[in-house]
TrEMBL record:
InterPro entries: Adhesion_GPCR, GPCR_2_extracell_dom_sf, GPCR_2_extracellular_dom, Ig-like_dom, Ig-like_dom_sf, Ig-like_fold, Ig_sub. GO terms for biological process: adenylate cyclase-activating G protein-coupled receptor signaling pathway. SMART domains: IG. One of its GO terms (molecular function) is G protein-coupled receptor activity. This is Ig-like domain-containing protein. It comes from Dendroctonus ponderosae (Mountain pine beetle). Residues 223-280 form the G-protein coupled receptors family 2 profile domain. PROSITE patterns: G_PROTEIN_RECEP_F2_3, IG_LIKE. GO terms for cellular component: membrane. It holds the Pfam family Ig_3. Residues 17-116, 121-212 form the Ig-like domain.
Length: 328
């Protein structure tokens, strides 16, 4: 379906009708998941109307849950009104030029404000889970995928062990920065389960990724290393899960549990692919979720219904057949 664009046909305003300002409650860059509120102040008659556009497209609030609009009459200034557009949970798709259109007596005025949204660093940790034996050394790598530094400065990297900040060097651990954007943690033997987290920060945002390391006693037999469903499943302690990333072109994680049959025999269970999301369908869904399109109410509802049907049927199909080629 062809996309329609709206044009703000602005004319020279009369003295009676005029946009005073378009402002935002948070100066500078907006962090993803934060709230921001745009305000459009104008003077005119009580019949004056306000409309909001983003990058030339009408902001449709029919289905969205994280945006709202409100009109306020100024009690102190005659004929002055303020239209608010709030975004409760900012996403990268909310970045762009927001335009307030005011119409009064068939005269239109437009004024815009550009909003910049900063995502937290996209962090990858390898491996995502691990089973080790007594005296075994191992390393964990943590990298930012978009390169070195965000909008403001470089990223800084640190590690925690069981939620406590880890010094750069201890008797059993040490870490260093990797060029151009990452860090590597070296661990020299453990004798019990431990939880490590990698914290990546800049002056505005932060992200954290964790790994659970399971300690395996000599007397305990693990699930053996195997290749199945097109993926590698390394040796894993019983009653624990091995976690890894979804296959190429999918986002999310896969988990597979090592179970004890009859309470004593380790065996791999079926992998859980339900958190894998196809990139193409995810982007399509997000476009409609954020409502910066000109679809009719009926068309948007139908597309949402189709997405939910595909998602439900695919998950049910893959749960029964243990397939890994998940489409949503």
């Amino acid at each position: 379906m062809r996309r329609k664009w709206f044009r703000c046909n602005c004319k020279v305003a009369t003295i009676r009708t005029k946009i005073q300002s378009v402002d935002i409650n948070q100066p500078g860059v907006i962090r993803e998941n934060d709230e921001f509120i745009l305000s459009c102040v104008a003077r005119g008659s009580p019949s004056m109307t306000f409309r909001w556009f983003k990058d030339g497209t009408f902001v449709n609030l029919t289905f969205t849950r994280h945006k709202w609009i409100k009109l306020i009459k100024d009690p102190h200034v005659t004929d002055q009104y303020t239209a608010l557009l709030a975004v409760g949970t900012a996403r990268k798709y909310d970045e762009g030029k927001f335009t307030c259109q005011v119409e009064d007596f068939n005269i239109q005025q437009c004024k815009s404000k550009f909003v910049k949204v900063k995502r937290p660093p996209l962090v990858k940790i390898e491996p995502m889970s691990l089973t080790v034996r007594k005296g075994q050394n191992f390393t964990v790598k943590c990298v930012t995928l978009e390169g070195n530094g965000g909008i403001i400065g470089k990223y800084t990297y640190s590690w925690t062990k069981n939620k406590e900040l880890l010094p750069v060097r201890t008797d059993s651990e040490r870490y260093e920065t990797l060029y151009p954007a990452g860090t590597i943690l070296q661990v020299f033997g453990i004798e019990k389960d431990v939880h490590f987290s990698c914290l990546v920060q800049d002056s505005l945002t932060s992200s954290e990724r964790s790994i659970q390391v399971h300690f395996l006693d000599k007397q305990v037999h693990p699930c053996s290393n195997e290749t199945k469903y097109g993926l590698i499943w390394p040796e894993t302690a019983p009653d624990t899960e091995y976690v890894q990333e979804c296959p190429k072109d999918y986002s999310g994680i896969i988990s597979r549990k090592c179970m004890l049959r009859d309470g004593k025999t380790p065996a791999w269970g079926a992998p859980d692919f339900s958190q894998c999301t196809g990139e193409f369908l995810r982007k399509v869904y997000e476009q409609f979720q954020f409502n910066y399109r000109t679809k009719s109410v009926k068309e948007s509802a139908e597309l949402r219904g189709i997405h939910q049907d595909v998602k439900r049927e695919t998950f049910a199909f893959c749960s029964n057949l243990m397939c890994w080629n998940v489409f949503v």
